[in-house]
């Protein structure tokens, strides 16, 4: 079945530094990838939608200069948290959808998430 | 826009009790509906799905029926186990995927 690998699974960084999170579709081509953020004991909030080769579409209230998304290939999207601060600490989850909606979850396959802690 | 309203918890049940977690949705088109489960410290796992009205999704004893007339997709299980303790999310997919607030279920022996 369709698999999405997200890396790293957890990261601790110092305030003011940048962190890059990778999301890879391992056995399918992901034309669209989504990035979510989950605060403790809360739901997943969609941050942005990225299509391969084009700029990401950010949800209202999400700072695009803060959360840089790159989807340069059909199997890789990256989320870079720039100049991270403690309030950016969260659980970030990506999902990918294949062309034509193939794969599990009626087209959506989720990564296992990245727990970011900014100290 | 599209959204999901989910019964908030926490919900605490004894083992073998009946479970219902309510979920209603608002959508402009004809979305697909999902239930996901999240265990502590882990990502999401698809529990079940339904892609059109009157479809019933089922898995591991859990069931949910896509009710267009009531715009609902309530999750049910006849007899819960301690291992079912987790957070359950109702979700809607149209052009993207939107999640409900999540319901934390604790099952006590």
Report the β-strand fraction of chain A as a percent range.
over 45%
Number of helical segments of chain A? 0
| String of helices and strands of chain B | EEEEEEEEEEEE
Most extensive interface between two protein chains, with residue counts = A-B, 22 and 19 residues
Overall mean pLDDT of chain A: 89
Q: Give the helix level of chain B as a range of percent.
A: under 10%
Number of helices of chain B: 0
List unreliable stretches of 5+ residues of chain A.
none
Would you report the number of β strands of chain B?
12
Gyration radius of chain B, in Å: 13 Å
What report would you give on this structure?
Chain A contains no helices and eleven strands. Chain A is an all-beta fold. The model of chain A has no long low-confidence stretch (mean pLDDT 89). Chain B has 109 residues and is mainly beta. Helix content of chain B is 0%, strand content 52%.
Which key terms come to mind for this protein?
heterodimer; A: 119 residues; seven-stranded mixed sheet; four-stranded antiparallel sheet; B: mainly beta; 52% strand
Short description:
Helices cover 0% and strands 54% of the residues of chain A. Chain A is an all-beta fold and 119 residues long.
Q: What is the topological layout?
A:
The complex is a heterodimer of chains A (119) and B (109).
Chain A: E1 4-7, E2 10-13, E3 19-25, E4 30-38, E5 44-51, E6 57-58, E7 67-73, E8 76-81, E9 90-98, E10 108-110, E11 114-118
Parallel strand pairs in A: 2-11
Antiparallel strand pairs in A: 1-3, 3-8, 4-5, 4-9, 5-6, 7-8, 9-10, 9-11
Chain B: E1 3-6, E2 11-14, E3 19-21, E4 23-26, E5 32-38, E6 44-50, E7 56-59, E8 62-65, E9 75-77, E10 86-93, E11 97-99, E12 103-108
């Amino acid at each position: 079945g369709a698999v999405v690998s997200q890396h790293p699974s957890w990261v601790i960084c110092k305030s003011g530094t940048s962190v890059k999170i990778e999301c890879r579709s391992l056995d399918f081509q992901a034309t669209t990838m989504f990035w979510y953020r989950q605060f403790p004991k809360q739901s997943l909030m969609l941050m942005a939608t990225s299509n391969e080769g084009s700029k990401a579409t950010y949800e209202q209230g999400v700072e695009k200069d803060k959360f840089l998304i790159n989807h340069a290939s059909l199997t890789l999207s990256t989320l870079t948290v720039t100049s991270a601060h403690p309030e950016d600490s969260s659980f970030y989850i990506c999902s990918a959808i294949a062309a034509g909606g193939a794969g599990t979850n009626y087209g959506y396959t989720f990564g296992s998430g990245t727990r970011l802690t900014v100290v | 826009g599209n959204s999901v309203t989910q019964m908030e918890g926490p919900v605490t049940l004894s083992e073998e009790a009946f479970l219902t977690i309510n979920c209603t949705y608002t959508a402009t088109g004809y979305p697909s509906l999902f239930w996901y489960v999240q265990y502590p410290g882990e990502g999401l796992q698809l529990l079940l799905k339904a892609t059109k009205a009157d479809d019933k999704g089922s898995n591991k004893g859990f069931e949910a029926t896509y009710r267009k007339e009531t715009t609902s997709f309530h999750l049910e299980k006849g007899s819960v186990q301690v291992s079912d303790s987790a957070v359950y999310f109702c979700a809607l997919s149209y052009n993207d995927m939107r999640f409900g607030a999540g319901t934390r279920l604790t099952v006590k022996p």
